[in-house]
Amino acid sequence: MMREGDACVALLRSKLHGLVERNRSLEEENKQLRHQVSRLKGQVSSLEGQDTDRKMLWKKLDNSSTGNSYLKEKQFVPNNDAKEAMDLNSTSCYSRQQFSRAPLVRSRAPRVPNPPPSPTYTQPIVNARKEGGMAPPPPPPPLPSRLLKSTKAVQRVPDVVELYRLLVRREGKNDAKSGSMGIPAATNSREMIGEIENKSAYVLAIKSDVENQSEFINFLAVEVKNAAYKEIADVEEFVKWLDGELSYLVDERAVLKHFPNWPEKKADTMREAAFTYRDLKNLESEASSFHDDRRVATPMALKRMQALQDKIEQGIHNTERARDSASGRYKDLKIPWEWMLDSGIISQLKMASLKLAREFMNRVVNALKSDPFTNDEELLLQGVRFAFRIHQLAGGFDEGCRKAFQELKMYASKSD
Protein backbone atom coordinates (compact mmCIF):
# COMPACT_ATOMS: atom_id res chain seq x y z
CA MET A 1 0.00 0.00 0.00
CA MET A 2 2.85 2.37 0.84
CA ARG A 3 4.46 1.76 -2.53
CA GLU A 4 1.20 2.44 -4.35
CA GLY A 5 0.77 5.64 -2.33
CA ASP A 6 4.29 6.77 -3.19
CA ALA A 7 3.64 6.05 -6.86
CA CYS A 8 0.45 8.11 -6.76
CA VAL A 9 2.26 10.98 -5.06
CA ALA A 10 5.03 10.84 -7.66
CA LEU A 11 2.49 10.85 -10.48
CA LEU A 12 0.65 13.81 -8.96
CA ARG A 13 3.93 15.69 -8.54
CA SER A 14 4.80 15.01 -12.18
CA LYS A 15 1.40 16.26 -13.30
CA LEU A 16 1.73 19.34 -11.09
CA HIS A 17 5.17 20.06 -12.53
CA GLY A 18 3.78 19.76 -16.07
CA LEU A 19 0.89 22.08 -15.29
CA VAL A 20 3.22 24.65 -13.73
CA GLU A 21 5.49 24.57 -16.78
CA ARG A 22 2.54 24.89 -19.14
CA ASN A 23 1.13 27.78 -17.11
CA ARG A 24 4.51 29.54 -17.21
CA SER A 25 4.77 29.18 -20.98
CA LEU A 26 1.22 30.46 -21.46
CA GLU A 27 1.91 33.48 -19.26
CA GLU A 28 5.05 34.26 -21.26
CA GLU A 29 3.15 33.90 -24.53
CA ASN A 30 0.37 36.15 -23.21
CA LYS A 31 2.95 38.75 -22.19
CA GLN A 32 4.47 38.76 -25.68
CA LEU A 33 1.05 39.10 -27.30
CA ARG A 34 0.15 42.06 -25.08
CA HIS A 35 3.43 43.73 -26.02
CA GLN A 36 2.69 43.25 -29.74
CA VAL A 37 -0.84 44.63 -29.34
CA SER A 38 0.53 47.70 -27.56
CA ARG A 39 3.12 48.29 -30.28
CA LEU A 40 0.51 47.95 -33.05
CA LYS A 41 -1.82 50.39 -31.30
CA GLY A 42 1.01 52.92 -31.19
CA GLN A 43 1.63 52.50 -34.93
CA VAL A 44 -2.08 52.96 -35.71
CA SER A 45 -2.21 56.15 -33.60
CA SER A 46 0.88 57.50 -35.38
CA LEU A 47 -0.62 56.82 -38.83
CA GLU A 48 -3.92 58.45 -37.84
CA GLY A 49 -2.02 61.53 -36.64
CA GLN A 50 -0.11 61.78 -39.91
CA ASP A 51 -3.34 61.47 -41.91
CA THR A 52 -4.96 64.24 -39.85
CA ASP A 53 -1.95 66.53 -40.36
CA ARG A 54 -2.06 65.97 -44.13
CA LYS A 55 -5.77 66.76 -44.34
CA MET A 56 -5.27 69.99 -42.35
CA LEU A 57 -2.38 70.98 -44.64
CA TRP A 58 -4.44 70.48 -47.80
CA LYS A 59 -7.34 72.42 -46.25
CA LYS A 60 -5.02 75.36 -45.58
CA LEU A 61 -3.71 75.21 -49.15
CA ASP A 62 -7.28 75.22 -50.51
CA ASN A 63 -8.18 78.27 -48.43
CA SER A 64 -5.06 80.18 -49.36
CA SER A 65 -5.45 79.49 -53.09
CA THR A 66 -8.81 81.34 -53.20
CA GLY A 67 -7.19 84.70 -52.25
CA ASN A 68 -4.40 86.54 -53.94
CA SER A 69 -2.06 83.54 -54.07
CA TYR A 70 -1.74 83.87 -57.86
CA LEU A 71 0.44 86.97 -57.28
CA LYS A 72 2.96 84.97 -55.26
CA GLU A 73 5.61 82.81 -56.84
CA LYS A 74 6.07 79.51 -55.04
CA GLN A 75 8.80 77.01 -55.52
CA PHE A 76 7.84 73.46 -56.42
CA VAL A 77 9.12 70.93 -53.90
CA PRO A 78 8.63 67.17 -54.45
CA ASN A 79 7.77 64.95 -51.53
CA ASN A 80 10.21 62.06 -51.55
CA ASP A 81 8.25 60.25 -48.81
CA ALA A 82 5.44 59.62 -51.30
CA LYS A 83 7.50 57.24 -53.41
CA GLU A 84 5.62 53.95 -53.53
CA ALA A 85 6.96 50.36 -53.71
CA MET A 86 7.53 48.66 -57.09
CA ASP A 87 5.10 46.08 -58.45
CA LEU A 88 7.38 43.13 -59.41
CA ASN A 89 4.74 41.24 -61.41
CA SER A 90 4.34 44.09 -63.95
CA THR A 91 8.03 45.07 -63.55
CA SER A 92 7.06 48.71 -63.24
CA CYS A 93 8.08 51.34 -60.75
CA TYR A 94 5.99 54.44 -60.29
CA SER A 95 7.15 57.37 -58.19
CA ARG A 96 4.10 59.20 -56.93
CA GLN A 97 4.79 62.75 -55.86
CA GLN A 98 2.79 65.43 -54.12
CA PHE A 99 3.05 68.92 -55.49
CA SER A 100 2.32 72.46 -54.36
CA ARG A 101 -0.68 74.14 -55.97
CA ALA A 102 1.29 77.21 -57.09
CA PRO A 103 0.81 78.15 -60.76
CA LEU A 104 4.50 79.03 -61.25
CA VAL A 105 7.39 76.55 -60.89
CA ARG A 106 11.05 77.35 -60.60
CA SER A 107 13.42 75.29 -62.69
CA ARG A 108 15.78 73.05 -60.76
CA ALA A 109 19.47 72.96 -61.46
CA PRO A 110 20.68 70.06 -63.65
CA ARG A 111 21.41 66.98 -61.60
CA VAL A 112 25.04 65.89 -61.27
CA PRO A 113 24.87 62.08 -61.06
CA ASN A 114 26.86 60.05 -58.58
CA PRO A 115 29.16 57.43 -60.13
CA PRO A 116 27.71 53.90 -60.36
CA PRO A 117 29.00 51.27 -57.89
CA SER A 118 32.14 49.37 -58.81
CA PRO A 119 31.35 45.74 -59.69
CA THR A 120 33.20 42.81 -58.15
CA TYR A 121 33.48 41.34 -61.64
CA THR A 122 32.51 42.87 -65.00
CA GLN A 123 31.39 40.47 -67.69
CA PRO A 124 33.54 40.94 -70.81
CA ILE A 125 31.80 41.87 -74.06
CA VAL A 126 31.87 38.93 -76.50
CA ASN A 127 33.06 39.90 -79.98
CA ALA A 128 31.77 38.21 -83.13
CA ARG A 129 34.11 35.85 -84.97
CA LYS A 130 35.11 36.48 -88.55
CA GLU A 131 32.81 33.75 -89.82
CA GLY A 132 29.86 35.43 -88.15
CA GLY A 133 29.44 33.03 -85.20
CA MET A 134 29.53 33.99 -81.56
CA ALA A 135 31.96 32.71 -78.98
CA PRO A 136 30.43 30.09 -76.68
CA PRO A 137 29.10 31.44 -73.37
CA PRO A 138 31.30 30.99 -70.30
CA PRO A 139 30.50 27.99 -68.07
CA PRO A 140 28.43 28.55 -64.90
CA PRO A 141 30.49 29.62 -61.89
CA PRO A 142 31.48 26.82 -59.49
CA LEU A 143 29.65 26.42 -56.21
CA PRO A 144 31.24 28.00 -53.14
CA SER A 145 33.33 25.47 -51.21
CA ARG A 146 31.09 25.81 -48.13
CA LEU A 147 27.94 25.07 -50.11
CA LEU A 148 29.58 22.27 -52.10
CA LYS A 149 30.75 20.64 -48.88
CA SER A 150 27.32 20.76 -47.26
CA THR A 151 25.65 19.44 -50.43
CA LYS A 152 27.85 16.36 -50.45
CA ALA A 153 27.02 15.75 -46.79
CA VAL A 154 23.32 15.34 -47.56
CA GLN A 155 22.34 11.67 -47.75
CA ARG A 156 19.00 9.93 -48.16
CA VAL A 157 17.59 8.30 -45.03
CA PRO A 158 15.13 5.50 -45.96
CA ASP A 159 13.92 5.29 -42.35
CA VAL A 160 12.28 8.71 -42.74
CA VAL A 161 9.98 7.45 -45.50
CA GLU A 162 9.25 4.19 -43.67
CA LEU A 163 8.40 5.87 -40.37
CA TYR A 164 6.27 8.47 -42.10
CA ARG A 165 4.23 5.81 -43.91
CA LEU A 166 3.87 3.78 -40.72
CA LEU A 167 2.49 6.67 -38.69
CA VAL A 168 0.18 7.84 -41.46
CA ARG A 169 -1.14 4.30 -41.89
CA ARG A 170 -1.69 4.06 -38.16
CA GLU A 171 -3.53 7.36 -38.23
CA GLY A 172 -5.83 5.88 -40.89
CA LYS A 173 -5.64 8.71 -43.35
CA ASN A 174 -3.53 9.88 -46.24
CA ASP A 175 -0.95 12.53 -45.88
CA ALA A 176 -2.40 15.99 -46.19
CA LYS A 177 -0.10 18.76 -47.15
CA SER A 178 0.27 21.37 -44.49
CA GLY A 179 -1.81 24.47 -45.14
CA SER A 180 -0.06 26.84 -47.44
CA MET A 181 0.66 30.16 -45.86
CA GLY A 182 -0.35 32.05 -48.94
CA ILE A 183 1.30 35.40 -49.30
CA PRO A 184 -1.46 37.90 -48.60
CA ALA A 185 -2.13 40.49 -51.24
CA ALA A 186 -0.37 43.70 -50.43
CA THR A 187 -2.84 46.21 -49.09
CA ASN A 188 -2.24 49.86 -48.70
CA SER A 189 -3.63 51.01 -45.35
CA ARG A 190 -2.99 54.67 -46.09
CA GLU A 191 -5.73 56.58 -47.81
CA MET A 192 -4.60 58.35 -50.95
CA ILE A 193 -5.18 62.09 -50.86
CA GLY A 194 -7.62 63.31 -53.54
CA GLU A 195 -6.37 64.50 -56.89
CA ILE A 196 -5.09 68.05 -56.89
CA GLU A 197 -7.50 70.29 -58.78
CA ASN A 198 -4.83 72.57 -60.21
CA LYS A 199 -2.50 70.29 -62.25
CA SER A 200 -0.49 73.05 -63.90
CA ALA A 201 2.33 72.82 -61.31
CA TYR A 202 2.69 69.09 -61.96
CA VAL A 203 2.82 69.52 -65.74
CA LEU A 204 5.29 72.42 -65.53
CA ALA A 205 7.51 70.44 -63.15
CA ILE A 206 7.70 67.52 -65.59
CA LYS A 207 8.42 69.88 -68.49
CA SER A 208 11.17 71.50 -66.45
CA ASP A 209 12.84 68.14 -65.75
CA VAL A 210 12.61 67.14 -69.41
CA GLU A 211 14.35 70.36 -70.46
CA ASN A 212 16.94 70.66 -67.68
CA GLN A 213 17.79 67.05 -66.83
CA SER A 214 18.41 65.68 -70.33
CA GLU A 215 22.16 65.35 -69.85
CA PHE A 216 21.65 63.59 -66.54
CA ILE A 217 19.11 61.15 -68.04
CA ASN A 218 21.27 60.45 -71.08
CA PHE A 219 24.16 59.58 -68.75
CA LEU A 220 21.96 57.09 -66.88
CA ALA A 221 20.70 55.60 -70.17
CA VAL A 222 24.27 54.90 -71.31
CA GLU A 223 25.10 53.26 -67.95
CA VAL A 224 22.05 50.99 -68.17
CA LYS A 225 22.77 50.00 -71.78
CA ASN A 226 26.42 49.18 -71.04
CA ALA A 227 25.73 47.33 -67.78
CA ALA A 228 27.04 43.75 -68.09
CA TYR A 229 27.65 41.93 -64.81
CA LYS A 230 28.65 38.41 -63.91
CA GLU A 231 27.33 38.42 -60.34
CA ILE A 232 23.69 39.07 -59.47
CA ALA A 233 24.83 40.87 -56.29
CA ASP A 234 26.42 43.53 -58.54
CA VAL A 235 23.13 43.94 -60.40
CA GLU A 236 21.40 44.44 -57.06
CA GLU A 237 23.84 47.23 -56.14
CA PHE A 238 23.49 48.82 -59.59
CA VAL A 239 19.68 48.86 -59.33
CA LYS A 240 19.90 50.42 -55.88
CA TRP A 241 22.13 53.15 -57.30
CA LEU A 242 19.89 53.67 -60.35
CA ASP A 243 16.70 54.03 -58.29
CA GLY A 244 18.46 56.49 -56.01
CA GLU A 245 19.43 58.66 -58.97
CA LEU A 246 16.02 58.48 -60.65
CA SER A 247 14.29 59.51 -57.41
CA TYR A 248 15.57 63.04 -58.11
CA LEU A 249 13.08 63.34 -60.98
CA VAL A 250 9.59 64.72 -60.40
CA ASP A 251 7.88 61.63 -61.82
CA GLU A 252 10.14 58.93 -63.22
CA ARG A 253 7.75 57.45 -65.81
CA ALA A 254 6.28 60.77 -66.89
CA VAL A 255 9.74 62.26 -67.52
CA LEU A 256 11.47 59.25 -69.06
CA LYS A 257 8.76 58.68 -71.68
CA HIS A 258 10.02 61.87 -73.37
CA PHE A 259 13.42 60.20 -73.94
CA PRO A 260 13.17 57.57 -76.71
CA ASN A 261 16.73 56.43 -76.00
CA TRP A 262 15.87 55.34 -72.46
CA PRO A 263 16.35 51.50 -72.21
CA GLU A 264 13.12 50.86 -70.32
CA LYS A 265 13.03 47.11 -70.99
CA LYS A 266 16.52 46.49 -69.66
CA ALA A 267 16.08 48.76 -66.64
CA ASP A 268 12.84 47.03 -65.61
CA THR A 269 14.31 43.56 -66.20
CA MET A 270 17.35 44.40 -64.07
CA ARG A 271 14.98 45.51 -61.31
CA GLU A 272 13.00 42.29 -61.63
CA ALA A 273 16.12 40.13 -61.32
CA ALA A 274 17.60 42.19 -58.47
CA PHE A 275 14.44 42.27 -56.35
CA THR A 276 13.69 38.57 -56.92
CA TYR A 277 17.21 37.62 -55.87
CA ARG A 278 17.10 39.96 -52.86
CA ASP A 279 13.83 38.47 -51.61
CA LEU A 280 15.13 34.90 -51.95
CA LYS A 281 18.44 35.81 -50.31
CA ASN A 282 16.64 37.46 -47.38
CA LEU A 283 14.50 34.35 -47.01
CA GLU A 284 17.57 32.09 -47.03
CA SER A 285 19.27 34.31 -44.46
CA GLU A 286 16.19 34.26 -42.20
CA ALA A 287 16.00 30.47 -42.28
CA SER A 288 19.76 29.93 -41.86
CA SER A 289 19.88 32.20 -38.81
CA PHE A 290 16.65 30.87 -37.29
CA HIS A 291 16.90 30.00 -33.61
CA ASP A 292 14.12 28.23 -31.74
CA ASP A 293 13.17 30.32 -28.72
CA ARG A 294 12.30 27.86 -25.94
CA ARG A 295 10.30 30.55 -24.14
CA VAL A 296 7.69 30.35 -26.91
CA ALA A 297 5.02 27.67 -26.47
CA THR A 298 5.55 24.56 -28.59
CA PRO A 299 2.44 24.91 -30.81
CA MET A 300 3.32 28.50 -31.73
CA ALA A 301 7.00 27.64 -32.30
CA LEU A 302 6.10 24.79 -34.66
CA LYS A 303 3.68 27.03 -36.57
CA ARG A 304 6.41 29.63 -37.07
CA MET A 305 8.79 27.04 -38.52
CA GLN A 306 6.08 25.63 -40.77
CA ALA A 307 5.20 29.12 -42.04
CA LEU A 308 8.85 29.85 -42.82
CA GLN A 309 9.19 26.53 -44.64
CA ASP A 310 6.04 27.34 -46.64
CA LYS A 311 7.68 30.55 -47.86
CA ILE A 312 10.88 28.70 -48.78
CA GLU A 313 9.02 26.12 -50.84
CA GLN A 314 6.96 28.85 -52.52
CA GLY A 315 10.15 30.73 -53.41
CA ILE A 316 11.74 27.58 -54.87
CA HIS A 317 8.59 26.78 -56.83
CA ASN A 318 8.30 30.30 -58.27
CA THR A 319 11.98 30.34 -59.28
CA GLU A 320 11.78 26.95 -61.01
CA ARG A 321 8.56 27.92 -62.79
CA ALA A 322 9.92 31.24 -64.13
CA ARG A 323 13.48 30.06 -64.77
CA ASP A 324 13.13 28.95 -68.41
CA SER A 325 11.50 32.13 -69.66
CA ALA A 326 13.49 34.50 -67.43
CA SER A 327 16.90 33.04 -68.22
CA GLY A 328 16.45 33.73 -71.95
CA ARG A 329 15.53 37.37 -71.34
CA TYR A 330 18.41 37.80 -68.89
CA LYS A 331 20.94 36.39 -71.36
CA ASP A 332 19.78 38.75 -74.12
CA LEU A 333 20.14 41.76 -71.81
CA LYS A 334 23.51 40.73 -70.30
CA ILE A 335 22.00 40.03 -66.87
CA PRO A 336 23.36 37.06 -64.88
CA TRP A 337 20.98 34.12 -64.67
CA GLU A 338 23.07 31.23 -63.25
CA TRP A 339 21.88 32.05 -59.73
CA MET A 340 18.46 30.62 -60.70
CA LEU A 341 19.89 27.14 -61.33
CA ASP A 342 19.49 24.27 -58.86
CA SER A 343 23.13 24.76 -57.87
CA GLY A 344 22.53 28.42 -57.00
CA ILE A 345 20.00 30.06 -54.68
CA ILE A 346 17.72 26.98 -54.77
CA SER A 347 20.46 24.82 -53.26
CA GLN A 348 21.05 27.41 -50.55
CA LEU A 349 17.34 27.47 -49.69
CA LYS A 350 17.30 23.68 -49.40
CA MET A 351 20.27 23.78 -47.04
CA ALA A 352 18.43 26.36 -44.94
CA SER A 353 15.42 24.01 -44.82
CA LEU A 354 17.60 21.36 -43.17
CA LYS A 355 18.28 23.82 -40.36
CA LEU A 356 14.53 24.21 -39.84
CA ALA A 357 14.01 20.43 -39.90
CA ARG A 358 16.63 19.98 -37.17
CA GLU A 359 15.09 22.71 -34.99
CA PHE A 360 11.59 21.30 -35.54
CA MET A 361 12.51 17.72 -34.59
CA ASN A 362 14.49 18.88 -31.53
CA ARG A 363 11.51 20.94 -30.34
CA VAL A 364 9.19 17.91 -30.72
CA VAL A 365 11.57 15.63 -28.81
CA ASN A 366 12.01 18.17 -25.99
CA ALA A 367 8.23 18.57 -25.73
CA LEU A 368 7.80 14.80 -25.46
CA LYS A 369 10.41 14.68 -22.70
CA SER A 370 9.24 17.61 -20.58
CA ASP A 371 5.43 17.63 -20.89
CA PRO A 372 3.66 14.51 -19.52
CA PHE A 373 0.32 15.74 -20.87
CA THR A 374 1.46 15.97 -24.49
CA ASN A 375 -0.50 14.03 -27.08
CA ASP A 376 2.36 11.75 -28.10
CA GLU A 377 0.71 10.36 -31.24
CA GLU A 378 -0.28 13.75 -32.64
CA LEU A 379 3.05 15.43 -31.89
CA LEU A 380 5.06 12.50 -33.26
CA LEU A 381 3.07 12.49 -36.47
CA GLN A 382 3.59 16.25 -36.82
CA GLY A 383 7.35 15.91 -36.34
CA VAL A 384 7.73 12.97 -38.73
CA ARG A 385 5.53 14.66 -41.33
CA PHE A 386 7.69 17.81 -41.28
CA ALA A 387 10.89 15.72 -41.41
CA PHE A 388 9.59 13.74 -44.39
CA ARG A 389 8.58 16.95 -46.17
CA ILE A 390 12.07 18.47 -45.99
CA HIS A 391 13.80 15.13 -46.60
CA GLN A 392 12.03 14.94 -49.95
CA LEU A 393 12.73 18.59 -50.78
CA ALA A 394 16.46 18.53 -49.95
CA GLY A 395 17.05 15.01 -51.23
CA GLY A 396 18.17 13.70 -47.83
CA PHE A 397 19.45 14.77 -44.41
CA ASP A 398 22.73 16.16 -43.19
CA GLU A 399 24.42 14.82 -40.05
CA GLY A 400 22.53 17.10 -37.65
CA CYS A 401 19.15 16.11 -39.10
CA ARG A 402 20.04 12.41 -38.99
CA LYS A 403 20.82 12.63 -35.26
CA ALA A 404 17.62 14.53 -34.51
CA PHE A 405 15.58 12.01 -36.50
CA GLN A 406 17.08 9.06 -34.62
CA GLU A 407 15.82 10.56 -31.35
CA LEU A 408 12.40 11.09 -32.87
CA LYS A 409 12.37 7.53 -34.16
CA MET A 410 13.25 6.25 -30.68
CA TYR A 411 10.13 7.87 -29.22
CA ALA A 412 8.04 6.45 -32.06
CA SER A 413 9.25 2.91 -31.25
CA LYS A 414 8.32 3.41 -27.56
CA SER A 415 4.76 4.31 -28.51
CA ASP A 416 4.25 1.09 -30.50
Account of the protein in words:
The chain has 416 residues and is mainly alpha-helical. It has a domain at 301-411. The protein is built from twelve helices and no strands. Helix 11 packs antiparallel against helix 12 (399-414). The longest helix is centred in the N-terminal third of the chain and has 64 residues, at 2-65. Helix content is 61%, strand content 0%.
Layout of secondary structure:
Layout: H1 2-65, H2 145-153, H3 158-171, H4 200-212, H5 214-226, H6 232-246, H7 252-256, H8 264-288, H9 298-332, H10 345-370, H11 376-394, H12 399-414
- Compute the separation of the termini in Å: 31 Å
Number of helices: 12
N to C succession of SSEs: HHHHHHHHHHHH
Q: Please tell me how large the radius of gyration is.
A: 29 Å
Largest sheet: none
Residue share in helix: 55-70%
Uncertain spans: 64-104, 122-136, 145-151, 174-198
What spatial form do the alpha-carbon principal axes imply?
elongated
Brief write-up:
The protein is mainly α. It has helices at 2-65, 145-153, 158-171, 200-212, 214-226, 232-246, 252-256, 264-288, 298-332, 345-370, 376-394, 399-414.
Q: What characteristics describe this protein?
A:
about 60% helix, coiled coil, mainly alpha, CHUP1/IPGA1-like, 12 helices
